[in-house]
Amino acid sequence: MKYTFKRKSKKCAEDDKSKERYLFQRFDEANLWLQHKCVVWLERKTAHLSAKSWILILFCFVVFTVGGNVYLIVDSLNGKDSKSIERSLISRPTNRVVFDPKQNQLNRSLSKMELERIVRFQIYMDSLGRSPTGKGVQDSILKFCPGL
Fold first, then answer.
1. Predicted confidence (pLDDT) at residue 106 exceeds the cutoff of 60
2. What is the pTM of this model?
3. Per the structure, how many domains does the chain have?
4. Among the four residues 19, 64, 94, 128, which has the most C-beta atoms within 10 Å?
5. What distance in Å separates the CA atoms of residue 143 and residue 87, rounded to the nearest whole number?
6. How many whole angstroms separate alpha carbon 141 and alpha carbon 121?
7. d(CA 139, CA 87)
8. Are residues 71 and 106 in the same domain?
9. Are 147 and 93 in contact, with CB atoms under 8 Å apart?
10. Does 112 lie in the same domain as 134?
């Protein structure tokens, strides 16, 4: 059996374009169908409302929307700092990677006793974070001594 391979012609490009157009056309049809179904459903649900009730609904919508926006604008321009975001100072950790040789020598000068003391303090801080009563103590320590 002999298989023949045909060269792609210019018709392929036109076929691709027609397929894309067909796909877009189907999406448009589906969108219009969905819009039509939503319109029919909304008309059924609001058929019993009179013109006066529509005016009242529109008036309430406008009043609440404008009132909410005016409140947000006045509250933002009020200038109170009570709702502002608190920021803490960024501190450098002692175990960071240092590329300056002078500071690198300073980090090596810790004795074994000091390292054990630091490890014990880290264990203590971790234990404070695990207990509900110690969480407040840990937060106050971190607030007054950031970077520990």
1. no
2. 0.34
3. 3
4. 128
5. 11
6. 12
7. 15
8. no
9. yes
10. yes
